[in-house]
């Protein structure tokens, strides 16, 4: 069982389809802004320009390593949501502990839409999303045994 809790870059080979080597080298690992912040800020790997009502997918170049009973929840930065109605397209991103073992190394993507009527510019290196690690519980009759090998929708249950 993994007991680590940390962020890492995915390999350049995994990131290369979404950005160049300079962008990769300048990726910043998520960090908390203050000692009492719950969320780890994710930083824009490139300049992000959202036209009104536009949707962008951000390849963060980041993966999260966590214990089996922890997930990472991704949200927009509060101020961006409040001022620009910037929303994650899946409302809350849930990164499971086994995602880091996937073929894509657990590369976290954030798909967001500017639901406002005004353009939104986010500078390269500025915080645009936040992740909060959450420990969760299992029911006494839980019997899940399947293993993941993919990203979004890879654990579809019949």
What does this structure look like?
The protein has 158 residues and is mostly beta strands. The protein has one domain (6-135): Deoxyuridine 5'-Triphosphate Nucleotidohydrolase, Chain A (Distorted Sandwich). It is 10% helix and 33% strand. It has helices at 12-15, 21-25, 78-84, and strands at 6-9, 40-43, 48-50, 55-59, 62-65, 70-76, 86-88, 93-96, 109-114, 120-122, 127-135. The strands form four sheets. The chain has a four-stranded antiparallel beta sheet. The longest helix has 7 residues, at 78-84. It is globular. The protein starts with 5 loop residues before the first strand and ends in a 23-residue tail after the last strand.
State mean pLDDT (0 to 100 scale). Answer: 92
Order the strands across the largest sheet as they lie in space: 2-11-6-8
The CATH level-2 architecture is identified as Distorted Sandwich
- How does the major sheet shape up? 4 strands, antiparallel
Distance between the termini: 27 Å
Q: What's the tally of helices?
A: 3
Total discrete domains: 1
Within CATH, the superfamily carries the name Deoxyuridine triphosphatase (dUTPase)
| Beta-strand percent range | 25-35%
CATH topology, which one?
Deoxyuridine 5'-Triphosphate Nucleotidohydrolase, Chain A
Shape: globular
CATH level-1 class: Mainly Beta
Total number of strands: 11
Rounded to an integer in angstroms, the radius of gyration calculated over CA atoms is: 16 Å
